Amino acid sequence: MANTPEELVEFTKNINECLDEAFETKLQNMRSAFRKELRKIKSSRPSGSGEESVHRSTLWYFDLLVFTKDQEVPTPSISNISPITPSSEKVRTLFFCCHIKY
Fold first, then answer.
1. pLDDT in tens, 50-65
2. Residue 30 maps to a domain
3. How many structural domains does the chain have?
4. How far apart are CA 81 and CA 9, in angstroms?
5. Where's the MADF domain (predicted)?
6. Residue 80 CA, distance from chain mean position
7. DSSP 8-class letter at 102
8. pTM score
9. How far apart are alpha carbons 96 and 14 in whole angstroms?
10. Separation of alpha carbons 53 and 41, rounded Å
């Protein structure tokens, strides 16, 4: 327990730091869940589908975070598929030509 004002200030700093970290973690978790729900909604809207087939989020805070939807920027990813080079295109063409049945 804090007995002096200095101890009280130090005790309060420790609590505030813990609360800040907990808040940041909670906010990141909420944004991650929001992005996941947003992907579900987008993937449940195939062309020509009715409104009843669209996924509806059950997150209580989903509508509160909709304003962040435009702030989501996809991170660049690294592909493990090698790009098609002219030589590999020739091989592919040759492969398909040899396996076509007339």
1. 666 788 888 998 998 8
2. yes
3. 1
4. 56
5. 15-67
6. 20
7. -
8. 0.54
9. 68
10. 10
pLDDT above 70: residue 95? no
Question: What type of residue is 64?
Answer: L
Structural domain includes residue 83:
no
CA distance 40 to 54: 9
Spatial neighbors of 72 by CB under 8 A, at least 6 apart, are 35, 38
**What pLDDT, on a 0 to 100 scale, did the predictor assign at position 32?**
92
DSSP assigned state of 1: -
> Residue 42 has which token pair?
């987008």
Asked if residue 99 belongs to a domain, the reply is: no
Please give the pLDDT value at position 87. Answer: 58
Q: Which of 69, 70, 45 is nearest to 55 (CA)?
A: 45
For residue 24, the enclosing domain spans: 1-46+55-72
DSSP of 27-85: HHHHHHHHHHHHHHHHHT--TT--GGGS-----TTTGGGGGGGGG--PPP---SSPPPP
Q: What is the pLDDT of residues 13-39, one digit of tens each?
A: 777 777 788 888 888 999 999 999 998
